[in-house]
């Protein structure tokens, strides 16, 4: 065990002996969801620290931007504006897919991956 783990464990035991956890309304209940269910276990703690520090991961920002662009596309009337929005949407979606592929090792949009690999002669 690392020194900080020993110190933390000792502090928890001392608090338990003083009865500091006796009136906890969450005792025996599952922890409230932290919104990190889809995050891999290796990244979960880092994401939690970032969330607590108010830092938003790029993929979250991209998802919000993608959602906003989709909403703009839904209400947009001008064809010229729709074309620009679709280009912007494709860029954001591609960046998001690349980030997720890098983080998870999974290929997003596998049908496109297969086509690209065929063109490259690596199927």
Can you describe this structure?
The protein is an all-alpha fold and 123 residues long. Helix content is 66%, strand content 0%. The protein contains five helices and no strands. The chain has helices spanning 3-17, 41-52, 58-75, 79-104, 110-119. Helix 3 runs antiparallel to helix 4 (79-104). It is elongated, with a radius of gyration of 23 Å. The mean pLDDT is 83.
Summarize the structure.
The chain is mostly helical and 123 residues long.
Kindly list the characteristics that best describe this protein:
123 residues, single chain, mainly alpha, 0% strand
Give the C-alpha Rg. Answer: 23 Å
Q: What is the straight-line distance between the termini?
A: 48 Å
Secondary structure category: mainly alpha
Estimate what percentage of residues fall within beta strands.
under 5%
Runs with pLDDT <50, length 5+? none
**Main beta-sheet strand count, sense and barrel state:** none
Count all strands and give the number: 0
Q: How many individual helices?
A: 5
Shape: elongated
Mean pLDDT, rounded to whole units? 83
| SSE arrangement, N to C | HHHHH
Helix content: 55-70%
Secondary structure layout:
Blueprint (H helix, E strand, L loop, with lengths): L2 H15 L23 H12 L5 H18 L3 H26 L5 H10 L4
Helix pairs in contact: 3-4
